[in-house]
Amino acid sequence: MKKVILYVLMIPVFVGILFSCGEAKTDAKKLEGKWDIIEVKGEKILKEGLPQMEFDMSENKLHGNAGCNIFNTTITLDDKDISSITINPAATTMMACPDMATEDAILKAMGDVKAVKAGKSENEMLLVDSDENVLLVLSKN
User: Residue 107's closest CA among 64, 48, 44?
Assistant: First the structure.
């Protein structure tokens, strides 16, 4: 009987530990400024001259470099959910580049972004889809 009570008491502790280990949603306005894109859909970007994003949250604008081509777009925030962010379709330059696969993955991932989560440190942010799958990992520039 004592073991049963012990197990029943341990369940809430275990569940609490599981939830505390996951990244927490955060205010999308914390994206203000320049960020390096260091990972796309679980694939680390291992080259010099990392792709970058620069968020202007007061103007709801986003521009950057997807690896070769420059992009410009707008973002949409939701007043009811501070972590919500939608990246609207971007206008990009059309240069042919040696590594178009990374660039294509970044641009596609941008279209699926629905929210922001805190990363492993204050200098890291995660852009996630509607199922909270990590699409892009950003590192403060």
Answer: 64
pLDDT digit string, tens, across residues 34-45: 999 999 999 999
Asked if 18 and 12 touch (Cβ cutoff 8 Å), the reply is no
- For residue 31, which of 79, 86, 80, 72 has the smallest C-alpha distance? 86
Give 47-62 pLDDT, tens digit per residue: 778 899 999 999 999 9
pTM: predicted TM-score of the whole model, two decimal places:
0.82
Q: Which helix (H) or strand (E) holds 62?
A: strand 61-65
d(CA 34, CA 57): 11
* Buried residues in 83-92 as b, exposed as e (16+ CB within 10 A): bbbbbeebeb
Name, in order, each residue with C-beta under 8 angstroms of 40's C-beta and a sequence gap of 6 or more: 102, 105, 106, 109, 135, 136
**Span between the terminal Cα atoms of the chain, in Å:** 57
Between CA 21 and CA 17 the distance in angstroms is: 6
